[in-house]
Amino acid sequence: MAAMASPEAISRRAAYTEQMAADHGVDEALIARLVHGFYDDVRADPVLGPIFAARIADWGPHLARMTDFWSSVMLMTGRYHGQPMVAHAPLPIDATHFDRWLALFDAAARRLCAPAAAEAFVAKARRIAESLELGIASQAGTLLNRGERFHRQGA
């Protein structure tokens, strides 16, 4: 059973959400637009599209899950309850794929968001990608030093 958030935590989350909206223009509608626009680009991409197509038959639940993820990341809503590392670890991906993911995400954010919101999203995306790449490398038996990238053998 999940613990209830304290009134102070609820208040801090609400203040953070209000600040993101006021300072960056980030709200649920923007998050949904970005998620849908970004994944439209991913599906059309020759590098990432086939990886997603092999694993996602029904995009509705995936888009809803990613909207919840970004809502949790950007607005601290706590709606996402998944395990990103568990989901990504078995994928045949490495630095090349993370670079492509970031390039598409950056382009979608800059196309669909005001500059301040795009910067906020992209900064979070870079940290997320770095964390996932480090975790995937570690699970593949490769410990990366600061600044090193993960490249799968034979890829």
Structure, briefly:
By secondary structure, the chain is an all-alpha fold.
What are the SSEs and their pairings?
Layout: H1 7-24, H2 28-44, H3 49-53, H4 59-75, H5 84-88, H6 95-112, H7 115-139
Commentary on this structure:
This protein has 155 residues and is mainly alpha-helical. The chain has a single domain, classed as Globins (Globin-like). The protein has seven helices and no strands. Helix 2 crosses helix 6.
**SS field, number of helical segments:** 7
Please count the beta strands (DSSP E, at least 2 residues each).
0
Average pLDDT across residues? 91
Query: What is the level 1 CATH name?
Result: Mainly Alpha
Give the termini distance in whole angstroms: 43 Å
Strand proportion: under 5%
Q: Any idea what the CATH architecture is?
A: Orthogonal Bundle
Give the tags.
mainly alpha; 0% strand; 155 residues; Globin-like; 68% helix
